[in-house]
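hey can u check if this looks right to u? its 373 residues, i copy pasted from the old doc so theres a chance i mangled smth
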Amino acid sequence: MMKPLVIQGRRGLFQLSDPRPVLTRSQTSMDRLTDRWSMDYHDDLSEGQSHPKHPGLILRQFAAEEDVPALITADSRTPGIYLADCEWEGAYDNDKPEKIIGTSETRLLKPQWETFTEGRLSYHAMPKAITGTASTDVIDCPAHGLTDGRRVAFLDLTGGAGLTGQSTSALATPYYVISATADTLQVSTTEGGAAVNFSTNITAGYLVPVEYLPGSAHPTLPQMFLDNVSLKRTAEDVWHQADCTYIGQRTPRPYHRIITVNGQTVSSSVPIQILLTGGWTDYLYTNFSLPRIVVTDTYVTTSAPATGDFPAFATPPNAPSVMSLTFTGTDFIFNYPYGWTLQASDTIDTLSSGITLNIVRNVYEFVWPALLK
């Protein structure tokens, strides 16, 4: 068999077409890829690293054979060339080694918990032990296999002042991996941003992708929160099957809304008009009251309900439009405050856990600038 042309001493990894890559796809298990690479040193590749072109694939094993000998003199060493036959596995089309193998969900019309279960095969489901150096903001995590841009969180941190990890009573802050090497990384609060500064060394703790941390929001369904993760080691040993159960409200909007006028439920898309038969010629002689407009929003949140005084100045999100009225004369009694106010904020359901996840109901009322009686 004719060997491909190589140049002695070149740097970096080069994918070769001899033999041709072979890809095996699977709907219920890992995808697998075999291919060949040229490299300067036999340790330019390491088990567990991501594929240079398909980061969802992890290097399972490889066999490296010297193709061009190294040139060694008394003063220098010119690298040789190694050919490596590699076996990769994971998710060929994904940007990280996670593969969804099944989903199920329960949807409800009423504002109660809905559930969403997602089964995944994952290379990173298990928390990884870490330490960290405050002077460099570098986190040591041997053979972590994580790539830049991966969202992660911390568990059981000892030290690391300036980083927020998950505890029995608080949710973790999601961070993005940056400056990743084989055994170290830094984190940022934004993707590709500056490294977070922590002022004390991390002496113990764990790092885990947010997809496997209870209390985290689903990556594409932000109102569904991870409640339970069941991990099972697969026959491939380093891979785990993760059954993730989410709860919350799977709705296109982050809340259920009811709008009432004088207690009557109405639609925000249909205008409501006040018809004064025969007109209104003298405002001093009327027994008319302006309508009471109330907006009730029910939504899922990890925050506790507001504990301030009510009513409070607050406008509901995407507030329905209310026709403005103009009043003149000195005989009107003007209300203060007027406009939207928050009348109540109540928890109507909650989980029995240290990390609270609540269904909260906010009630807003529109107060007219003047009262007509």
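The chain has no helices and 24 strands.
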